[in-house]
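Annotators were shown the component list below and the corresponding predicted structure, then asked to write short factual statements about the assembly.
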Amino acid sequence: MSMKIQADRLAPWAAYLLVGVGALIMLAPFYFMFVFATHSRTEIFSLPPPLFFGDDFLTNLTILTERIPFWRNLGWSLYVALASTALTLLFCSLGGYAFALFEFRFKKLLFGLVMATLLLPSFMNMIPTFMIMDVLGWIDQPRALYIPGAASAFGIFLMRQFVAASIPRDLIEAARMDGCGEIGIYTRIVLPLLKPALGTLGLITFIASWNNFIGPLIVMRSPEMYTLPLALRSLQSPVNTEWGALMAGSAIATLPLIILFILSSRQLISGLTTGAVK
Amino acid sequence: MGQVTLRGIRKSYATVDVIKGIDLAVQEGEFMVFVGPSGCGKSTLLRMIAGLETITAGDLLIDGIRANDQRPADRGAAMVFQSYALYPHMTVAENMGFALKMAGVARKQRDEQVGRAAEVLRLGELLGRYPKELSGGQRQRVAIGRAIVRKPKVFLFDEPLSNLDAALRVNMRIELSRLHKELGTTMIYVTHDQVEAMTLGDRIAVFNQGHVEQLGAPLELYNRPANVFVAGFIGAPRINLIERPPVSGAAIAHQALWTALTSQTSTDAARIGLRPEHLHLAPTGEGIAATIALAEHLGDVSILHLRVDGVSDLLHAKVGANLPRCEAGQSVRLLPDANWALPYDANGRLIE
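Structure shown to annotators:
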């Protein structure tokens, strides 16, 4: 009897311990990324390795900016992420709205085709993407990154579900009776009501673009056009990798995402579940 | 202002004809009700007048101007939807002023007009609220307010009271009636509820399968239904339709009922219609023999469902509650009031 009570009392603590260890394992690399960003290469490889913050961050930053055009790469990352997010929001909301509320020929077939693109493994697109960008003469240009990603099947699907669940047809018709044209209906009625879904999709798109490594690897050639993941990768070599500088760059690259996530994690979760639970 | 004329209006989807040629003139200031069973085309016709559905053939004239190809907002019609269709991201005031904003009316004038409409509908304190903070009845009033603000030539109502509970529906009905008197604007009102149709309409158009079965004042429709469809659709409990008994071998009671009903009207009738309130109970020894199949006591009246030998359908009688209590299985005597008998020919048309 008492054994059982004791076990009941211990169970939550065991759970906390397990989750705590899991969290430690998950967070440790991030912690060490920030710690190593403030140490020189020799310190990092000393035994035992440094566990707390050092004072070499500025030195690392100097090495970083000497080896790669870091701020320029950061700028391109931001530019491409913002551009692809803006374009994705525009086209996915338009597409989702059309698929949810308009009647047109071949609607089902078209939507099926859009959805079918989700089935293609992304590596299948690598070579065709390169060939198309090459033909267009877009190699080494940021548009080679944000134009192909301007409308995603996932985004269209998310928007369509959201519109179907939360914008009744009567509302569109009421707006039409009130004197709205098609563009007016989209900007004044549909877009404001899509806000939660736009926030979610925007966040997902921004993060995906920010972290995108394969895309820039395929279409970007000159180091000054690299986005951050690619630029940071170029710091690594079989010998003579400036680990401290690499970690400093990675830490800076992570910060915008961490801030974005802290500001909007609630939005992200609510937006993803809005259409689902109704 | 506010005359709506329909000339040979048709609507087809691919090969299916939904509206099969409608000619109808709604007078200025009239309260016209479209009533009919679901799928009869009444809502579709309303949406065609609004401009939300295209017109396949025929002419729609609003104040004498052909409106077939006008944009919905240019037709001078305002619509109140069954679902209210309020914009969730706008306050009550913004909802009501939206059409004016779209029309480019200045803010000050807009606020004035919204304020005036809010006064008429007693919405004053709600102007700053969002639709989700309102009750069903309040939402409906806002939806009507949004229509009023535009000062339309004609109001279009698409089953506006269907989503309200019974008590609220009665209130809104009274309010709509009052509003019509106050504004004097033409109103076209779609409903499947015959009580709404009877109480609100100056005239009622009864729809069935894409055409108008009868057009007339409520009591005209009730007392002189032009055909058996209208007779059956208007009035609850349903009108009794008694078939002519066979020439030979008719049941005695059936024959007696027929003879009693045709004493005042044409004898060529194939069927006679008689409203339940005109079928009375008679003292023992008089009238026609019947058995009560079911008795519904509503307090003020009782509805008796009666079986008469030889008549295929149950007959309904609406009798006063002051009669001695009737129960199922009991035998009674019936006395039809032949003055109200409605003779119908073999095609179901009223013989005048």
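Statements collected:
1. The interface with chain B takes residues 168, 170-171, 173-180, 184, 189, 192-193 of chain A (CB under 8 Å).
2. The first helix of chain A runs from residue 2 to 36.
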